[in-house]
Specification:
2 domains
């Protein structure tokens, strides 16, 4: 009966399990991690977009259609920035990026259909 354990040991190869050889393609998929300065720049961009979004509140006599047209692109940009930088989708398998883009497109389409079904785009909406 063997007394060696395969969990929790490194086996000298840097692997999580004893005797496991690291995959050759692992090094090919490594990326340089963004610096703190990069994250600060991204945070400043997100803060500026948020300030623009909040600024739409102060637009006098802006129609709701105008507000939607202004806010939708900012929402999409913020969603993309957060997913790409803070969820590290820039460095993941492209399928994950496609899934998030599809989800975003689906959400926008469903939201537009819902607004259309409530006659949001007509001039008499909310009067």
């Amino acid at each position: 009966m063997s007394t060696s354990s395969t969990t929790g040991t490194t086996g000298g190869s840097g692997s999580e399990y004893a005797g496991e050889v690291p995959h050759a393609d692992h090094e090919a998929h490594q990326h340089r991690h963004p610096t703190d300065a990069t994250y600060i720049k991204v945070a400043l961009i997100l803060a500026a977009l948020t300030a623009l979004e909040v600024g739409t509140y102060f637009l006098d006599d802006a129609s709701t259609t105008t507000l939607v047209v202004l806010l939708f692109p900012m929402m999409i940009i913020k969603f993309a920035v957060v997913c790409l930088w803070f969820m590290h989708l820039r460095f993941d398998n492209p399928i994950f990026k496609r899934i998030f883009v599809f989800g975003l497109m689906l959400a926008v389409v469903v939201y537009c259909i819902a607004l259309t079904s409530m006659q949001f785009w007509s001039s008499s909406y909310g009067s």
